[in-house]
């Protein structure tokens, strides 16, 4: 028999799914307007940022990552992952935000004014929260774009890159042609791996960070990194990969594969939450002024607004969604101040 969730008797003004920078910004805007909010996060605070490689540097400057009118400082012109994590911890602490870490939203039931949100904590304890409004700010980093090829489920295949040390003196294939693939390939090379970079386009992305692009191109040109452009991976085995190049099929010796093929929103969760998508653009349908979805009382914030077009919204612009949503929610709840 399935365990019944423990019901929370108090009803929140707003329940926010996701405690990334956008979710935190939403909670602060709501607080300024006198609304109480709880954030439900399946991982740790700013979980997506935590999953970035340890030595990652942001492309942007500190002030463009700021939320809640709290200044962000960094040693250099561009902040690092470590500095960002420290900053968002400070934001959550300063505003005393109610963040429930390691709690996963399973179902959203009910209707505008009284939603019931069923959650689980570490797959053991279950709860049911009540809220008048819902904000979905779940981002996209947890859902990898799969290759859909035989062998992709082998333990040696990874869709997330953290650090290079475990791959010293190994044959490593990096699949992709954007920032994450370029950074992984370079760091693996510098740590002593034998690196092959495979990309399905005839050239690397033009959006690779300007201080990285010449480096990866020079390593490919010199042969320090073996490059296969206009090439696809067709099969992965325990000790090899099969690729399709313009010259035909090749088998390459291989120990590990990093499929840096991008990420996408959790569409299954969104559909289960009642979110409808535009058939042509594949974007979730929202009111452009309030960001309310077709399901009354449920709002979208951050990269979710762009749907599959995840390169259009980042922390820099997604952080302002909280202002739109909080103003709309406060007006609907009769508390339009702030």
Global Rg: 22 Å
CATH class of the largest domain: Alpha Beta
Distance between the termini: 47 Å
The number of helices is 8
Structural class: alpha/beta
Looking at the structure, the CATH topology of the largest domain is: FAD/NAD(P)-binding domain
Total strands: 15
Protein architecture, described:
This protein is of the alpha/beta class. Helix content is 22%, strand content 26%. The protein folds into 2 domains: 6-142 and 263-332, FAD/NAD(P)-binding domain, CATH 3.50.50.60; 157-259, FAD/NAD(P)-binding domain, CATH 3.50.50. The strands form 3 sheets. Strands 1, 2, 3, 4, 5, 6 and 15 form a 7-stranded mixed beta sheet that branches. It has a 5-stranded parallel beta sheet with strand order 7-14-8-9-10, with helices on one face. The chain has a 3-stranded antiparallel beta sheet with strand order 11-12-13, with no helix packed on it. Helix 1 crosses helix 8 (321-332) and helix 4 (179-190) crosses helix 5 (213-222). The protein starts with 5 loop residues before the first strand and ends in a 6-residue tail after the last helix. 38% of the residues are buried.
Describe the protein's topology.
Elements: E1 6-17, H1 21-32, E2 37-40, H2 47-50, H3 81-94, E3 98-100, E4 103-111, E5 114-121, E6 125-136, E7 157-158, E8 171-175, H4 179-190, E9 194-199, H5 213-222, E10 226-229, E11 232-236, E12 240-245, E13 248-253, E14 256-259, H6 267-272, E15 298-300, H7 315-318, H8 321-332
Parallel strand pairs: 1-2, 1-6, 2-3, 6-15, 7-14, 8-9, 8-14, 9-10
Antiparallel strand pairs: 4-5, 5-6, 11-12, 12-13
